[in-house]
Automatic annotation (TrEMBL):
Keywords: Coiled coil, Signal. Residues 1-23 form the signal peptide. It comes from Phyllobacterium salinisoli. InterPro entries: HH_AprE-like (IPR058781), Poly_export (IPR049712), Poly_export_N (IPR003715), Soluble_ligand-bd (IPR019554). Residues 164-191, 298-340 form a coiled coil. Pfam families: HH_AprE, Poly_export, SLBB. PANTHER family: POLYSACCHARIDE EXPORT PROTEIN GFCE-RELATED. The lineage of its organism: Bacteria, Pseudomonadati, Pseudomonadota, Alphaproteobacteria, Hyphomicrobiales. GO terms for molecular function: polysaccharide transmembrane transporter activity. This is Sugar ABC transporter substrate-binding protein. Residues 21-108 form the Polysaccharide export protein N-terminal domain.
Length: 411
């Protein structure tokens, strides 16, 4: 059965590979939140064991360290999730003297936040989004800080426009995501571009991003199903081997039974010693015991095949249920975004009615009204920071500090 245990270990490695650490090249930093899972293959028992004491969510500390049970303090700052996973597995193996190295999976549960300061309504800390730009961050912070009362409607218009742009981008992402979920539920190989995105210049990129997610999820499911198929094949081969052994054992038992019957009468007449008869009877009994053991092993292998079949069915049913729930949540988020878009459109209309100059402010970046000048303070990766000039569409990275200063308020 050693070859079977080794094959099971290989299959588990394939299964664990379906849970890749997200953002493989992303370098971790303070305040990043990680989801960590550790599973160990026990060769002696031929079973998997999860480490619930370690499995959970953790936050990278201010010094870049990560504190885990058993492993102690690990330096996570500047490292990737795959490097941390390898270090956790290696440390656990060395600390406990394990024969087999545990498998660790590290995923980014939440990026470290960004910060907005300067002449904005609500400076502070905000959650990071992969598509966050300077304008979106300033919009999250309430837009330009309130100045004279005469500028109120212009400021309201700018704030509403910024929030509206953020929601338009979110709605487009939700449209692409909904199209991907529809394709997954229909087992389609491609994603159909929604009609609402037909004229959007970024539509293809949104669809390509969702297609990459769909392919990754499909590959993960295929790997798991293939692993279960290979497991069933292993047990089916074992059953065939056991059946061949059973045939040989039955043949040997029949030969001994015939021999025992042929000398039984001779023993009664004293022509054959009784020890010979007892030896044959013992051999026949051993053969029967071995046949029962072979039947038991065969039955156990058939049970494992049935279990693998049920597991494959459960995987597919779970995937369908998750897709249905995700579709429902996506539709709810889309409906909420549509309502917010309508609200901000009405706010912009109201601002234009009360202050027609707000329209000119939106149409021209050279308006006489106050404007914001942006810069980003970013960690350079070696413990130092540098300040970069930025525009409204400059993309942000986790941990960035956005400075927004009103141009005519600077000395």
């Amino acid at each position: 059965m050693a070859w079977l245990s080794g094959s099971l270990l290989l299959l588990f490695a394939l299964l664990l590979a379906t849970f890749p650490a997200s953002a493989a090249e992303y370098r971790l930093g303070a305040m990043d939140k990680l989801s960590i899972r550790v599973v160990e293959w026990q060769t002696a028992e031929g079973t998997f064991r999860e480490w619930p004491t370690i499995t959970g969510n953790y936050t990278v500390g201010p010094s870049g360290s990560l504190s885990l049970p058993f492993t102690g303090e690990l330096q996570a700052g500047g490292k990737t999730t795959s490097e941390i996973a390898s270090e956790i597995a290696k440390t656990l193996q060395q600390k406990f003297g394990l024969r087999d190295r545990p498998e660790a999976s590290v995923e980014i549960a939440e990026f470290r936040p960004i910060f907005v300061s300067g002449d904005v309504e609500t400076p502070g800390k905000y959650p990071y989004d992969p598509e966050l730009t300077v304008l979106k961050a300033v919009s999250l912070a309430g837009g330009m800080r309130r100045a004279e009362s005469g500028q109120r409607f212009e400021r309201d218009f700018l704030n509403a426009r910024g929030n509206y742009d953020v929601l338009v981008a979110e709605r487009n992402r939700l449209l692409a995501k909904r199209a991907r979920l529809e394709a997954e539920l229909a087992n389609a190989s491609t994603i159909k571009v929604p009609k609402e995105l037909a004229d959007n210049p970024n539509a293809q990129k949104l669809i390509d991003d969702e297609a990459a997610i769909m392919l990754s999820r499909k590959d993960a499911l295929t790997l798991q199903l293939n692993a279960l198929d290979e497991l069933k094949t292993l047990y089916q081969n074992e059953i065939v081997s056991l059946e061949k052994k059973t045939v040989v054992q039955n043949r040997q038992k029949d030969l001994m039974t015939k021999e025992l019957a042929s000398i039984g009468g001779l023993a009664d007449r004293g022509l054959v010693v009784n020890s010979r008869v007892m030896s044959l009877e013992t051999s026949v009994a051993d053969m029967q015991s071995k046949l029962l053991d072979l039947d038991t092993l065969s039955l156990r292998a058939k049970q494992e095949i049935n279990k693998a079949t049920r597991d494959a069915t459960d995987l597919e049913n779970t995937r369908k249920a998750e897709l249905a729930n995700e579709m429902q949540a996506t539709q709810a988020a889309f409906d909420e975004t549509e309502l917010k878009l309508s609200m901000y459109k009405n706010l912009m209309t109201e601002a234009l009615v009360n202050a027609p100059a707000a329209g000119a402010l939106a149409a021209s970046s050279e308006s006489e009204g106050p404007t914001l000048v942006y810069s980003i303070v970013r960690n350079s990766g070696n413990g130092e920071t540098k300040e970069l000039q930025a525009e409204e569409n400059t993309p942000l990275l986790p941990g960035d500090l956005v400075k927004a200063v009103i141009s005519n308020a600077r000395s």
